Amino acid sequence: MTASSFDRRSIPAGASVQRWTAPDGWQLRAFAWPADTASPRGSILFQGGRGDVFEKYLEVFAHWHAQGWTVTSFDWRGQGGSGRLSAAANCGHIESFDAFIADLGAFYADWQAATPGPHVVMGHSMGGHLVLRALVEGAIAPDAAVLVAPMLGFRSPFGPLAERMARLLGGVGDSSRPAWKGNEKPYTTDTRASLLTHDPDRYADEIWWQTANPETVTGPPSWRWVIEAFKSMRESAADPRLKALKVPILMLVAKADGLVDARASLRIAPKLPDVRVVAFGAESAHEILREADPVRNRAIGEIDLFLAARAQRA
């Protein structure tokens, strides 16, 4: 699991970048890396966060692929290589998070039918929130799920007033306009790099991919995205179906996360009937799986143990 000669800046041999068409005709950019063994370990669908592209996770995909997993991912609608939904070319806009859930549910159905089991769905940040919500709503039903630094609350200096402020500010004029400029997080002096990872080389990989494929770069979210994110997180946290969820879940939480509120994850976890929580301290920023090796290796080790115990082949 330590750094190797794997090339993090090229699509690996045997993998492909494809287009998947949603039921409404929208095309999403997808990544597929079938297991190259006669006896596959199973299949992983990995979903990144807001503004992510699947290329950021090639290194960890290679780890699971080497263990015999088929690995799949797609860029969320309106970001990365899956088009834009606003006039601002790099703005991550969505009218409702319901659209994300619809895409995930439809993609999952096709993916599950076409890939070997057991089936595991993983989500980082916004992807973690959407995976959990899709599980609760019955849009997906994998054998196991992993939530990595899930976006179950925002770290905001405005506390409980943040959602109200977003609605006031974003409700004036065109809500598809960018909510802020530049950084991942407004009202902060922290650099984007320090918010994401302590590993400068892995951070540089993302910048390399942005330079190589500038059309996939996603900038700040729209005000509508911010408003809908608050709404979706609030409603999900209060959903009584959390307590009835049967899918085993591993939740990785970075307590020092400067983007999402780790406390929200730790409040929701006890509601889940079958969950294991692994917490990291100041050693980890938001992108746990793209952190320095001591953090990344521990996280991958926990995922591997979880999969061995809870995602066994029939």
Automatic annotation (TrEMBL):
Stretches assigned to the Serine aminopeptidase S33 domain = 39-293
Domain of life of the organism in this record?
Bacteria
Q: Which Pfam families does this one have?
A: Hydrolase_4
Q: Which PANTHER family match?
A: PHOSPHOLIPASE-RELATED
- The identity of this protein, by name, is Lysophospholipase
State the species of origin. Sphingomonas hengshuiensis
